[in-house]
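Chain A, query sequence.
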Amino acid sequence: MEWLPIVVLAAFFFLLVGAGVPISFCIGLATVATMLNSIDPLASATTVAQVMATGIDSFALLAIPFFILAGELMNRGGIAARLVEFAKALLGAFPGGLAYVNILASMLFGSISGSATAAASAIGSVMCPRMVEEGYDKNFSAAVNLTAATTGLIIPPSNILIIYSLAAGGLSITALFLAGYLPGILIGLSLMVVSGILAHRGKYPKSKILPMKETFRHFFRALPSLFLLIVVIGGIVAGIFTATEAAAVAVLYTFILSVFIYREVRFSELPQILLRSAATTSIVMLLVGASMAMSWIMAYENIPHYVTAMLLSLTENPFLLLVLINILLLVVGIFMDMAPAVLIFTPIFLPVVTALGIDPVHFGIIMVMNLSIGLCTPPVGTVLFVGCSVSGTSISQVIRPLLPLYGGMIVALFLVTKFPSLSLWLPRLFGF
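Chain A, predicted structure.
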């Protein structure tokens, strides 16, 4: 095994990360440094540019800017408040009910927008002040909000599952979307169980039981938002349109909903929404391009082959291998954002798991669930920063209530790892 390229790649990457350089530049510069060591120096820059351009030249990736724009429209369009009221009508009467409301509303909003940060911001800005007003601890409220927001990355539509599909060599996006439902719901339920225990110990209050008529009123107010799930996922499963076309439909639907039906977004606000969406898209695409370049140089140096041989020499038990990979990914998630982690480590670990007969769709869900935990952990957890900012608390204060919620998420991850049918049952039911 040739160690020098690996040492150069790892040394440059972690040195730049430690210096505070943005992650996409860390990946790109570390790749260039490794190429200078491995191939003709004059060809290194050209090769990086070509690989980056080829990496983002994908029809499937067109879904990402559309879903980002749809998420921005939802965030500003009053959808979060309606979902919160509907969730409160269903679960608010239970002891510690606002914690359940926070989780369910985040699951609904996240699954519609496909963005964990959007869910943490939109639901947190509504729920965290309300929970504090009714006697909940501010740090507990923030912890519940930011962990629940990650369910939107697993319950479709999900941008990160589209990125995994690209990294896995064009895996069916529809199969990945269907595979995310049960694991995403399982994470939500695990968070509810832990939140219920913490709420009982903290003697948090419950809301009054609403009349059935009031519950139906909140349901019908939220119904146009919920219908987007049926339009997008139903259209994909039925073969009416592709995931990319579904993202465009989602933009059109949320535009009509936010501007003409709910009337929460004015035409004068649209340029700002488009600008924010374009900025977010550019960040994601730069990450994708840089990560694809790093994946190329790793393949050129046969690093995935060496990793496969090394891991298979440790164990050939599929479950034990997945546990080992889970541990590695949990560590990776602490230091690296989700998109580059998926793009870099999918080409490394996917050959290992497929060599033991593990379904790539199942592994994709495990990987996304695993790295979702990293979004809630310091020092680079983007959802952690957003959740703390929205709730007005600090990372050091929110860590303690986060620990048992981490435990619930890890239990859900273990169950999905142990029982592949939790992620594969729905895709197989629909013939994928």
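The radius of gyration is 22 Å. Residues 9 and 34 are 6 Å apart (CA to CA).
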